[in-house]
Amino acid sequence: MYNDDNDRVVFFDIDGTLLDTSDFAETARKAAIGLMVDNGLPLDKDEAYGVLKTIIREKGSNYGKHFNVLTQVVLGHEDPMLVALGMITYHNVKMALLRPFPETLDTLIYLKSQGYRLAVISNGITIKQWEKLVRLNIHSFFDAVITSEEVGKEKPDKLIYDVAIRKMHGNPEKSVMIGNKFKADALGAVNAGLSAILVNSDVTEDDREYIKKHKLDITIVDDIGDVNTIL
Ligand SMILES: [Mg+2]
Fold first, then answer.
1. Domains and their CATH numbers in the chain
2. What pLDDT band is residue 2 in, cutting at 50, 70 and 90?
3. What is the distance between the alpha carbons of residues 187 and 163, in angstroms, rounded to a whole number?
4. Rounded to two decimals, what is the model's pTM?
5. Any residues with CB less than 8 A from the CB of 206 and at least 6 apart, and which?
6. Residue 122 CA, ligand 1 centroid: distance in Å
7. For the segment 125-179, what is each residue's pLDDT rounded down to a tens digit?
8. Distance from the CA of 185 to the center of ligand 1, in angstroms?
9. Gap from CA of 16 to ligand 1 centroid (Å)
10. What is the DSSP string of 37-91?
11. Measured in angstroms, how far is the CA atom of residue 94 from the centroid of ligand 1?
């Protein structure tokens, strides 16, 4: 059943929602560290991975120069060859592991058939988020990608949801956010007047109690394949 009621928008988170990212960053980082150590970074692999994790924790995961800092910390100066090796290995392994959940494509097709317009709301860098959609070959389903880079605030900040709704000319009351993080995706969305669906989420019993107590419009399902039982 298709209709033209085009203020109904379904917004998606990417990582852990459309995309199966279960520990692929860790695998990619370990591969990068392995090659850097094999090519002269003077630490053993576990030590080097520990230093990298500390740098990521301090700088945040969207910082673009983790490997530069790693060589600075370990060698006292930046080593461009090792940085290039680390970056490229990380990137290649991550891209090789990039995959949608088995039900992602069917769900996107289903939502389009129901007349929803689709967009992404993501904490991260705009081109990198489009890159993931393009590599998965699902980019044509989405009218827009709204990111924290563009808005200047991260989910769960209300502003990023307000900007997304405005950009899509959506009606918040008829629109839905689908994500895997209770705070960033679900609470952020309901705070901006949307409803939310949590998939693959790590909601705790306390979170469930909180949803019930405050009568929040948040539905929890197992995975993205269950969205069609709600929308
Ligand atoms: Mg996520």
1. 9-20+100-229 (3.40.50.1000), 24-97 (1.10.150.520)
2. very low
3. 16
4. 0.82
5. none
6. 8
7. 999 999 999 999 999 999 999 999 999 999 999 999 999 999 999 999 999 999 9
8. 8
9. 5
10. HHTT-SS-HHHHHHHHHHHHHHH-TT-S-HHHHHHHHHHSS--HHHHHHHHHHHH
11. 16
